[in-house]
Amino acid sequence: MPKGSPELTNARRTEIMNACTELYETMNFKQITMKEIGSVTSFSRPTIYNYFQTKEEIFLALFEQEYELWNDDLQKICSENEMLTKEQLADLIAASLQKRALMLKILSVNLYDMEENSRLERLVSFKETFWKTVNSFTALMRKFCVQMDDARIEQLSLAFFAYMQGIYPYAYSTDYQKKAMEQAGMPCRKTDIYEMAKLYFINVFNI
After folding, report:
1. 201: which residues sit within 8 A by CB, 6+ positions away?
2. Do the domains spanning 1-52 and 59-205 agree at the CATH topology level?
3. 135-166: pLDDT as tens digits
4. Integer CA distances (angstroms), 60 to 65, 153, 159, 205, in order
């Protein structure tokens, strides 16, 4: 760990993560290198290694941050509502995911590489955040879907977190993918994250 105040450490980690996010808007995961990330930070590339050993660790930190933000929204839904219909609950969860496009993009494209090429302590930190979010999601189901038993809620949660991996590709098809679908005679239906998330609950809740 580099010497310096916790504030400086946090500020530099945030700058590195923001640089990675900026590059990820126009470049794919394989194209992004530590050199590229260093080129859009205010300090030298070797300094980055004081905070992250690989680009995968940077992405993992971004991923963890996104899950923290989503967890905050799930807990807010739970604490601010005494009663919700199934449709209202589906709307609120779908709306919370609509704000987490970066999380869903990383989830759908780079999860395996990111986890395999990060130090164990970094991965443990992420898994703790992920599990906290799963528990927040499960708490929502228990509070607002009282007719479901624990086994059913556990199945629903497991299936939804697996389903999430496919949301981003459907909501954000590239021009190249659209061209291929057109030539294959495959319809390219316009959708978004909210609609894809809501679709899951429409089927599960039968609404």
Report:
1. 86, 89, 90, 93, 94, 207
2. no
3. 999 999 999 999 999 999 999 999 999 999 99
4. 9, 28, 22, 33
Structure tokens at 99: 């704000």
Enumerate helices (H) and strands (E) in the chain, giving the number of each: 12, 0
Q: Tens digits of per-residue pLDDT, 79-129?
A: 999 999 999 999 999 999 999 999 999 999 889 999 999 999 999 999 999
Place of tokens 């949660």: 157
How far is it, in rounded angstroms, from Cα 55 to Cα 26? 16
193, 104 contact by CB (below 8 A) = yes
CATH number for the segment(s) 59-205: 1.10.357.10
Nearest residue to 100 (alpha-carbon basis) of 186, 197, 204, 206: 197
For the domain made up of 1-52, the CATH class stated in words is mainly alpha
